[in-house]
Amino acid sequence: MERAWRGGQRVLVNDLVTNGVICSVYFFKDRGCDEMTSIRLQAKLTYDLQAYVDTMYGGPGKGWFRIVTDSAQARDVIEQGKLAVVLGVETSEPFGCKQILDVPQCDRKDIDAGLDELYALGVRSMFLCHKFDNALCGVRFDSGTLGTAINVGQFLSTGTFWKTEKCAGPQHDNPIGSAAAPGAEAKLPAGVRVPSYASDAQCNVRGLTDLGEYAVRGMMKRKMMLEIDHMSVKAVGRALDILDAGSYPGVISSHSWMDLNWTERVYGLGGFVAQYMNGSEQFVAEANRTKALRDAYGVGYGFGTDMNGVGGWPGPRGADAPHKVTYPFRSVDGGSLIDRQTTGERTWDLNTDGAAHYGLVPDWIEDIRLVGGQSVVNDLFRGAESYLDAWGATERHQADADLARGAPATASSTEWWNPFTSYAPGRAVDGDRDTRWASEWSDEQWLRIDLGSTHRVGRVTLDWERAYGKAYGIQLSTDGANWQTVWSTITGDGGLDTARFTGTPARYVRVMGTQRGTGWGYSLREVGVHSD
């Protein structure tokens, strides 16, 4: 890492990573396999490393390896020429939130306690799921032999294998395939086999659960950044809807495990995207494919190495490859003359060894420059600024007032035949997602909200129950008699919708349904009305 820092790197996100099932089959472990226990230990060891580097460089605070807990502190560290280290978490069962036979093993109190503990440790970004479906969300799968082995691990941990369905949109999860993994499969109980999967059913049936939504909103309250790589596309879609409804920028795709169709949506929120540490030719090709988007949003680029993980790293291109790295070379920032690294009796050369360890990151970036030109490297060296911009915007985010909260609401009709539950219009503006308004079962229905006085209205959020509107519009009025349609759709698909439009003065807001998406009526858990 010191060599990477000397080569110009200024931001490093150190994810604390573990997996209880992999730990359980490891022969040489010296501790238990509880994932949160491992996370705590890794955090401690990272702080220990900071202290060790400080000792090498003359005392507390003097080392180049500096753990930071806010974006301003990171900028200060970088201005000193040091490496700003951000702590993240990437684990399959955070806070003990596993599921066994689809039954959650955690509750909201566990999530709040877990988020508070991680925040106190200095963690500022995290994944809610990793390799196994858990009580928070479904995963995006792995492919091939590794995928089969992980699917076995999922069964051993949860009692269920991955389940797939046909995808509802252009995004899809990774194909599982049917590759054998004899070593892993031998650990299955007698008579249990890994299921086969239809090639046209490439989406995880499990999305973001109610507990997962609670965790996302909890991260937003604590100004933490959500890593969406590894989430199923169904989970990512719902998470992005929640972030979009709150205009929350704290979203990251850090190592190419997100469906690339989500890229512009992440940029639109103000988030950050990085590519996996692929070989230079592949990295350049993907960077060029998305460059127009980066230029449109004025952002830089990042790379995720997955060092110490199970992913691969760039192999050697060969001593005779065109545009090979020539030693010594000057680092991109001009601060260092970099020759081959010697460790003990071993001398490393990217051309013949590949990116074998983190110290060869500067050599890999030089390889990218030689293969793809300075433009890709320039985007990478704007990456730290873009990451800190996203982090800073996350810290500054303030949830704006919901003008509809507690306001008087009326409706064209209310489902009345359930004697045990009220579906009154006011239930859609009471701030409680466990209640809802429900109409009678016909197409032409409306819900009207009286804001009490005239306000500027520019955004309306609609959290649908299963009975959603396929075709509906948002109408505004200053007097309750003359209405203006400011937004409409004929392709509604339920979930959480955010309608944005030019800010308009209004006292009354009306959701006007013209076509139902199901055989039921229209049902809204919550409607939010915002100025912008």
Automatic annotation (TrEMBL):
User: Could you tell me what this protein is called?
Assistant: F5/8 type C domain-containing protein
- Natural source organism: Streptomyces capoamus
What SUPFAM superfamilies does its record include? Galactose-binding domain-like, Metallo-dependent hydrolases
Q: What is the lineage of its organism?
A: Bacteria, Bacillati, Actinomycetota, Actinomycetes, Kitasatosporales
Q: Which InterPro entries match?
A: FA58C, Galactose-bd-like_sf, Metal_Hydrolase
Q: Where is the F5/8 type C domain?
A: 396-532
Q: Which PROSITE patterns match?
A: FA58C_3 (PS50022)
Taken from the record, one Pfam family name reads F5_F8_type_C_2
Tell me where the transmembrane regions lie.
none
